[in-house]
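dumping this here before i forget
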Amino acid sequence: MSAILTEDKNYYLSKLSAKIKRCKRCQLHLSRNNVVVGDGSPYSRIMFIGEAPGADEDIQGKPFVGKSGQLLTKIINAMGLSREEVYIANILKCRPPENRDPNPHEIENCIHNLFMQIDIVSPEIIVILGRVAGMTFFGKDFSITRQRGKFFQFRGFKVLATFHPAYLLMNPSAKKLTWDDMKKVLRELGLAVPSK
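structure:
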């Protein structure tokens, strides 16, 4: 997709959202309550990408609204931003049963929707959250522990990987590493870095 004029971003995202909500390309449409397309500003300089909706997201139809989402919101707020100022999406738009990892067939059938979202929002930096998102972007050899906190290029976009908020809930000591990653994002964007 070619660059989209900023005044057209809401229009294109709404058209894409309507298309995604009709999707039946994989079996996940049979068990979903809601399609979870994305949330936030189409004019954002930062886009956060996780792997798939969980139970709370499936009920509410919004990404990252459960416990992991509450932590992500705290991280965004600590960066001096609000959820309304960033854009948040997932690789899959429907919840896998029992919150299992997405399978390759599901990713293959859904990833084009995410790529279209990325092209429309056209963020300066994409922050991918966790192992599954990292492997989807950079292949099966990607290691979140080895490659988090580094900038990569993907389809012409600058990408940084960090731990998924669900991992941080289970491993609170890793929060400092994620905060270090977010400070790198702020510096890269020329934004003020909070002292805390």
